[in-house]
Design a protein that fits this description.
The protein has 20 helices and 8 strands. The chain is an alpha+beta fold.
Length: about 475
């Protein structure tokens, strides 16, 4: 099993800005100088020239005996970053680093044999490399050894050995080892009829929690918990049916489980019924009916319902627009733990600080040669690039995670004079939900706007967002 995580999009604002400039260099027709050789740690893709300079730096360091540079060269060839994907070259660099004592490189060599990347699949060889890496305290290798023993791959199946390896990883602080052990404990408790443990298992499989989502398993455990009377599981099961996770969408089943939760006194059932009216799930879309259910759910303490009421009053869905009421509901929802409302309030706060910083507004574009007819500029000698100040990460979709899909999503967009994104268009995508997740996240991004002659202006940029199954 590949233990995947989404490499953080932004390590720091400065790195983002440099990477962003590299990404937009092709569209900056006016010829701004672009910094080269910026590392990929921020998750924004480099230009071909940037990768070439990075590879040259790694090769120089590797020639001097730097094992991390050897390992990083292996990653470039393994993932096809700035070079054609070449598993043989990648493995050779990993092996050089591993022989020189780099623990993560030892793990990488084991991964090649475990998954048959450019070599015949060989669990015995994989185990040997994982054991070497584990002896050097590499937790990913400990987890993979646990998986080999748990699944009987290349070794006799041995749950006790698997548990010991997971515990070693957890003892060194790897949360994935902790999560695997949690699942094991939940399974033992669920076997005794504990509905809370069944629900927690469903939640673990639904959310992935560093181990990868499995919606079919989530549905299975939520159903067991719901049949045992767990109302949280009823609500979660309703939303799995509504979203079509773990099977085809089924609004009738969703409504059934929301009704059961409502009858059992869970406010999540009230929220679920309102949600079906809001989206038109199995019923005619009806914001008024949705609002009534959300009000009932909010009165019973449901934070998501409070957040939706804020959205309704902000945008006039089924009610007259009322910014004061919207703000009140967002604040209540945020205090009750609704993440959407917390993000919304943070977004509004940053925007207000930018409005204070630019009290005179953007001013009219000067109409220079770098502006289009609609007043949108490109980065150039007299036009600065926007600087990100708020940038929530896109999510790695469950399907892409399961299928080990990696790569870059390229978007073209405009950052307006207020720093908000608009006119987002997909230039190159990956599919499996990653394109949609990237666009959804970028809609919330806020920038300090680009400037021309000292005045904020709308600027067209192109960004590359890299999705990576990372082992760092």
């Amino acid at each position: 099993m590949v233990n995947a995580r989404f490499s953080s999009i932004i390590v720091c604002t400065l790195l983002f800005v440099f990477s962003l400039l590299l990404s937009i260099s092709a569209s900056a027709q006016t010829g701004n100088q672009v910094p080269n050789g910026v590392g990929t740690g921020g998750g924004i893709g480099l230009s071909p020239a940037g990768y070439a300079q990075q590879r040259a730096g790694y090769e120089k360091a590797a020639a001097a005996g730097d094992t991390r540079a050897m390992r990083d060269l292996g990653k470039l060839y393994k993932d096809g970053l700035g070079v054609p994907q070449d598993y043989d070259q990648a493995r050779q660099w990993f092996e050089r680093a591993a022989v020189a004592g780099n623990a993560l490189a030892m793990y990488e060599v084991g991964d090649f044999y475990e998954n048959g990347l450019g070599v015949p699949q060989d669990y015995g060889q994989a185990r040997q490399w994982f054991e070497k890496a584990a002896a050097a305290r590499e937790t990913l290798a400990m987890l993979e050894l646990g998986n080999l023993y748990k699944n009987g791959r290349g070794v006799p199946q041995d749950y006790e050995q698997a548990r010991q390896w997971y515990e070693k990883a957890a003892a060194v602080g790897d949360v994935r080892g902790t999560e695997i052990l949690k699942r094991d404990r939940y399974e033992k408790a669920a076997a005794t009829g504990d509905s809370g443990a069944m629900y927690n298992l469903g939640l673990s499989y639904k959310e992935g929690r560093m181990l990868g989502a499995d919606f079919a398993k989530a549905r299975e455990w939520f159903e067991k918990a719901a049949m045992a009377g767990n109302t949280k599981a009823m609500v979660s099961l309703g939303f799995l049916y509504e979203e079509g996770r773990g099977g085809a969408p089924d609004y009738a089943q969703a409504r059934k489980w929301f009704e059961k939760a409502k009858a059992a006194g869970d406010a999540g059932g009230l929220f679920g019924l309102g949600y079906l009216y809001m989206i038109g799930g199995g019923v005619a879309q009806d914001y008024t009916q949705a609002r009534k259910w959300f009000e009932k759910a909010a009165a019973a303490g449901n934070a998501e319902a409070m957040g939706r009421l804020g959205d309704f009053y902000e945008h006039g869905k089924g009610v007259a627009k009322d910014p004061a009421k919207a703000q009140k509901w967002y604040q209540k929802a945020s205090a009750a733990g609704d993440q959407y409302s917390r993000t919304k309030l943070a977004n509004d706060y940053v925007f207000e600080q930018m409005r204070i910083k630019y009290p005179n507004g953007p001013g009219a574009p000067s109409g220079g040669s770098s502006a289009s007819a609609d007043g949108v500029f490109r980065v150039g000698p007299s036009v600065t690039a926007p600087v990100p100040v708020f940038h929530p990460d896109p999510k790695y979709s469950a399907e892409a995670h399961r299928k080990r899909l990696q790569g870059v999503v390229v978007l073209r967009l405009v950052v307006d004079a207020s720093g908000r994104t608009k006119d987002i268009a997909l230039v190159r995508g990956l599919g499996m939900g990653l394109d949609e997740n990237t666009i959804a996240a970028v809609r919330f991004w806020l920038f300090e706007p680009g400037r021309k002659d000292g005045q904020p202006v709308s600027v067209a940029i192109q960004i590359e967002v890299k999705f990576e199954l990372s082992r760092e």
